[in-house]
Structure formats: C-alpha cells, structure tokens
Amino acid sequence: MSRKKPKFGSERDGLAVLGEAPHALQGKSFVEARRWLARRIRIGTHCPLCNGFAKIYRRKITGSMAASLIVLYFEHRRRRSWKSWIHFETVTASLSRKAALRVRSRMLSVLRFWKLVECKTKGEGLRGYFRITPAGRRFVEEKLRVRRSAYIYNNYGLGLDGGKVGITDVMGEKFDYEELMLT
Fold first, then answer.
1. 58 in Cβ contact with 46 (< 8 Å)
2. Confidence of residue 11 (pLDDT cuts 50, 70, 90)
3. Are both 162 and 126 inside the same structural domain?
4. Are residues 78 and 154 in the same domain?
5. Residue of 43, 111, 115, 145 with fewest CB within 10 Å of its CB?
6. Burial of 119 (0-12, 13-18, 19+ CB in 10 A)
7. What do you get for the CA distance between the two ends of the chain, in Å?
C-alpha cells in the first residue's frame, strides 16, 4: 500500500492543512509549496504552509554592535573572568547617557551569528545575559576579521557573506532599516 503525499490546501484526518495557499498552490504537495516559498523567500512572502511571514535578512555588523561588544569585553576584563555571564543592561546602566544610548541597541545578540558572543538561553529570566567568545575577544583586539554580513532566517544563521572587516572598519557603520528590508 503506497502512502499518498498530503496535498496542500486539502484535509487529512479531518484537519485542514495550515495556512492559506495562493490559488496556484491549491492541491499541490508540501514539497511543491516549499519550492514555491524558496523562490520568494529572499524578497519576503507569507509562507503557504504556516501563513507566517518568511524572509531571509542580510544583517551587517554595525558600529553600535561593535561598541556593545567593546563594553562587554571591558566588563569581562574588569571582572578578570572570560567565562562569567554578564547582564548587559546592568553594565550599561553605569555608563554615561550618551554612551548608553550607543550600546543599548539590543543588537548584541545578533553577534552570535558571527560567533563573537554567546547568549545565555537555559532557564527562565535569563534574557540579556552574554559572554564574549575567544573570537569576540580577538575581534575587539583587532586580531580577527570577520565577514561583513550574516544571512538570518527565523532567528537562525544561514551563513556569512561579504568581504572581511575588522572592528575599526565597522565602528562608523550605522544601522540602516531600509537596506535591511531591501536585501
């Protein structure tokens, strides 16, 4: 007995398949729906399987991210421990207002896609805890250059791209929302 693939937009075991398919996908297989999505995911579209917005974002390292990494680096040095978890908001609370505005971009966690920081994820109430990685230390110390951009889909890193940059190369870079949405 051969098992038939469930068709997109059909019912199986009395349950409707999730999502509202574009007309062209009605009655197609999940494989065909995934192919349809793969052709459109770089510009952004609604997923025909879950109806969520699907887009691959290209993120660049910005000056604000680099400044946040430097603050984390110096806090680790102050504590004389590279292994301790640091609550970043507590550290930035002691900075001057101007400096705090520069590093409170909430983008420190994005640096995990370059493996420059680790984010603590186990346990409740642990948001905002970070530690710098050996690669992050070398990046701050200008001993390491990394790819300029990371490709991110649904909070997962898909890979890095672009020429290699050092920390001094990105310090003047500002976050550009329009560029992010157009890539």
1. no
2. very low
3. yes
4. yes
5. 43
6. middle
7. 46
| pTM value surpassing 0.85 | no
Q: Measured between alpha carbons, how far is residue 113 from residues 86, 94, 128 in Å?
A: 19, 27, 16
Tokens 């994820």 correspond to what residue?
121
**Reduced to 3 states, what is the DSSP secondary structure of residue 148?**
strand
- Cβ atoms within 10 Å of 149's Cβ, excluding its own: 20
> What 3-state DSSP class applies to 167?
helix
Q: Hey, is 60 helix, strand or coil? A: strand
Q: Which domain holds residue 123?
A: 59-182
Number of domains in the chain: 2
d(CA 7, CA 26): 8
CA 116/CA 165 separation, integer angstroms: 13
Could you tell me which of 132, 78, 138, 71 has the C-alpha nearest to residue 103?
71
d(Cα 119, Cα 131) in Å, to the nearest integer? 7
